[in-house]
Design a protein that fits this description.
It comes from Kribbella jiaozuonensis. One of its GO terms (molecular function) is transferase activity. The structure is a single chain. The protein has 9 helices and 9 strands. The protein is globular, with a radius of gyration of 19 Å. The model has no long low-confidence stretch (mean pLDDT 95). It is of the alpha+beta class and 268 residues long. It has 2 domains: 87 residues, Phosphorylase Kinase, domain 1 (2-Layer Sandwich); 165 residues, Aminoglycoside phosphotransferase (APH), C-terminal lobe (Aminoglycoside 3'-phosphotransferase, Chain: A, domain 2). β2 and β3 form a beta hairpin. α4 packs antiparallel against α5.
């Protein structure tokens, strides 16, 4: 928090207070009274430049993407072992987005992403990261053998099943769930591009509420269903990482194993 406040102040912004908006593996702060959102991460656990580069291009294309703070140089700032990026803060509008608006925003985001040519991970890289966590008992010491076997088998099966669909691929948000979509006066805006990857659009749709899929043109519902189970398996794996700081993460890990068993009942 002190690092974010110092960086903002040193760039001419007036900062008297930092309010925590989200705190898990990365920290999101609202800096006041300048009203800027700061994202903070340890320097060794970040890909902030990747996120900044994509966000700038999407905003230029008119995509529904939150913008970097215009009063400072749009770049990654580093100090005291942390990296900080400064973003426009948007006031939220009361009420939830209706499914059609959500799907339209995601479709427009995907359209902008198809114009971007930037080296990016593949969605299977994230599966591989999850598989490595499952295999590494030092990284996931509290994961019982039964849960470990379930996750290992599920990740292998789901990766193979998605590949068998031979779906077309493009740059994706990676985690366009409701927590990463702001309902603002400017309309719906996506945030948090650190998980951008290449893959089928159905992988992104699997992070959105189920009713959104019906409003997304030409989505393969069968593939979305498989991707939803994959997302469940990966998210459950993250919760067993000893370094995970997600609130109530261990209970979410237990719940995730139960949901995964039910989802794959009769398959594995």
């Amino acid at each position: 928090m002190d690092t974010a406040k110092w960086i903002a102040s040193s760039n001419g912004l007036v900062v008297e207070e930092a309010v925590v908006l989200h705190n898990s593996n990365k920290l999101a702060l609202r800096l006041l009274p300048c009203d800027v959102m700061a994202r903070v991460a340890p320097v060794h656990e970040q890909n902030a430049q990747f996120e900044v580069d994509i966000a700038q291009q999407l905003v230029e294309f008119g995509s529904p993407m939150a913008a970097l703070e215009p009063r400072v140089e749009p770049r990654v700032y580093e100090r005291d072992g942390f990296v900080v990026t400064l973003w426009t803060y948007y006031e939220s509008v009361a009420g939830e987005l209706i499914p059609g608006e959500y799907a339209d925003a995601l479709e427009r985001l995907h359209a902008g992403m198809r114009k971007i040519d930037i080296p990016s991970p593949h969605y299977t890289d994230r599966i591989a990261e999850a598989q490595e966590l499952v295999a590494n008992r030092e990284s996931t010491p509290d994961l019982a053998d039964a849960g470990r076997d379930l996750l290992d088998n599920a990740l292998r099966y789901l990766r193979r099943t998605i590949a068998d669909h031979h779906a077309s691929e493009q740059l994706l948000h990676g985690e366009p769930h409701p927590g990463n979509l702001l309902n603002t006066k400017q309309g719906p805006l996506f945030i948090d591009l650190e998980t951008c990857c290449r893959g089928p659009v159905e992988f992104d749709l699997a992070h959105a509420p189920e009713e959104v899929t019906a409003h997304y043109p030409e989505a393969d519902q069968d593939l979305v269903d498989v991707c939803r189970i994959l997302v469940l398996a990966m998210v459950t794996t993250w919760r067993w990482d000893r370094a995970d700081q997600f609130p109530n993460g261990r209970q979410l890990g237990l719940d995730g194993l139960d949901e995964l068993r039910e989802a794959l009942d009769g398959v594995l």
